[in-house]
Amino acid sequence: MGDMVKGANTFVPTVALRVAVRGGVDVAALLLTEWGRVRGDADIVFHGAPVHPSGAVRLVGGEDGTVWLEAGLTATEEEVSRVLVVASTEGGALRDAAGLAVEAFAPDGTSVARYAVTDAGGETAMVLAELYRRAGGWKFRAVGQGYPDGLEGLAVDHGVDVAAEGPPVAPAPVAAPPSMTKAPEAVTPAIRPAPAPAPAPAPPVAPVPAPYPFPIEAPGKTASGPAPDPFGAAAAPGAPDWTFGGLFAPRTRSGRGNDVITVEDLPPGPVVVELAVDGDGYTGLWPLTRFNKEESSLINSTQEDFRGRVLPVVPSNGRLRLKLRADGPWEMRILPLAAARRLTEEPLECEGPDVLLHTGGAADAAFHYRGKDNFIVHLYELADHDDPATLPERRRSAVNEIGRRRETFPLPEGPLIVHLRMADGPWRGRLKDVQPHSGRSPHDSGPRPPQPRRAQGWLRRGRR
After folding, report:
1. Fewer beta carbons within 10 Å, N or C terminal of the chain?
2. What is the domain extent for residue 96?
3. Per the domain annotation, does 169 fall within a domain?
4. Are 24 and 45 contained in the same domain?
5. pLDDT digits over 84-121, tens only?
6. Do 88 and 28 meet the contact criterion of CB atoms below 8 Å apart?
7. Are residues 314 and 419 in the same domain?
8. What is the predicted pLDDT for the residue at 210?
């Protein structure tokens, strides 16, 4: 694809895009509503807060003057209409940034949009490009709008509270003018309007992470009873943000009978593998090492019409290989960990092994298992585990029993993976006696120190 000219736009695939910003500049992303404003400081993604609470946009580092952003378009909250890609300098002007450019890549590495800035001047901040919703999809626009007054001018334009002091305040939503029935196509204004009046103070509201919105429709028969929400309810208010593990578009494989499945270019670390098999024979699944040796089985079941989700770990080379035994047609989906169902106080009814996320405060997990074979539950605490390429060492099994039974066991504060390692049969689970989340690691001691406002860390350089 050739370079786009300033102001041009093009459709891009609605997938997890990787966006490269070149030129040795500082990079940030702003997530805006249809009225062109952030909802609060949490909608600013920058070096001091590299992951959006939804997990949809994140800074993933860089080298040799290039900074990378991941933009999971399918995971972007409905309220977000635009994602701005912003460049700024700590010293000097953007005209001094050699090779200033922004380029978006599809998951297979194909360049889908590229814009090189050729007219930068004395400004110290610039909206390089934007991703915005249009006609049920997403488009990329080459913007190139500079701000001589730096990040503060850019921030004011997009509803960021630039006050240097005071507690964080969530801006009140901006109401649409009475005569406007729908939002106009996203256009970055050439002339900045006067700053809007400061919104009335409101108590800060913790963001609620949304489930990853991928459709899951297994072939053939499904579990009896009402079909559960594929990703369960969102985490309870007050839960910490879910930021563990990479985001990527789902990968689907299907076939009949025994097979070896290879999936390339995945982020290293735990992922969710969903498997549906139609048939009444044996179902088995094993991860393979790079030497094609079987590791411990993920599935070992004689359940008719098997349905379940398991938790393999993608190796550092990003290549997941699985050996499957299946007596019948099958469909497999590989999903990011963030796509797992949330375990909440709302009853969750399902069948087979599963991967659940607990992101709230300390609680009791209550399960009613109606199968006849093993029921094994493992817990993985992520609060103090900072390596997304591995699973933390698990504690002893929370449950390891055989046959129909009711089990209730305590859960620490999230984030936590509740892995139903074996469950050959239907089950029902929910949380009880849920406590408010403290907002800190369960291993911390002492009072939680005041946290600086997210926006102030981003604007600090612009005030130097």
Report:
1. C
2. 9-163
3. no
4. yes
5. 999 999 878 999 999 999 999 999 999 999 999 999 99
6. yes
7. no
8. 33
| Domain end point (choices 163, 183, 211) | 163
Residue 191 lies in a domain: no
Tens of pLDDT, residue by residue over 54-65, are 999 999 877 788
Examine residue 320 and state whether it is found in any structural domain, yes or no.
yes
pLDDT tens digits along 124-150: 999 999 999 999 999 999 999 998 888
Tell whether 41 and 157 lie within a shared domain: yes
Q: What is the 3-state secondary structure (H, E, C) of the chain?
A: CCCECCCCEEEECCCEEEEEEECCCEEEEEEECCCCCCCCHHHEEECCECECCCCCEEEEEEECCEEEEEEEHHHCCCCCCEEEEEEECCCCCHHHCCCCEEEEECCCCCEEEEEECCCCCCCCEEEEEEEEEECCEEEEEEEEEEECCHHHHHHHHCCCCCCCCCCCCCCCCCCCCCCCCCCCCCCCCCCCCCCCCCCCCCCCCCCCCCCCCCCCCCCCCCCCCCCCCCCECCCCCCCCCCCCCCCCCCEEEEEECCEEEEECCCCCEEEEEEEEECCCCCEEEEEECCCCCECCCCEEECCCCCEEEECCEECCCCCEEEEEEECCEEEEEEEEHHHCEECCCCCEEEECCEEEEECCCCEEEEEEECCCCEEEEEEEECCCCCCCCCCCCCCCCCEEEECCEEEEEEECCCCEEEEEEEECCEEEEEEECCCCCCCCCCCCCCCCCCCCCHHHHHHHHHHC
pLDDT in tens, 357-374: 998 889 999 999 999 888
Instruction: Please report whether residue 421 resides in a domain.
Output: yes
Number of domains in the chain: 3
- 18 and 144 inside one domain: yes
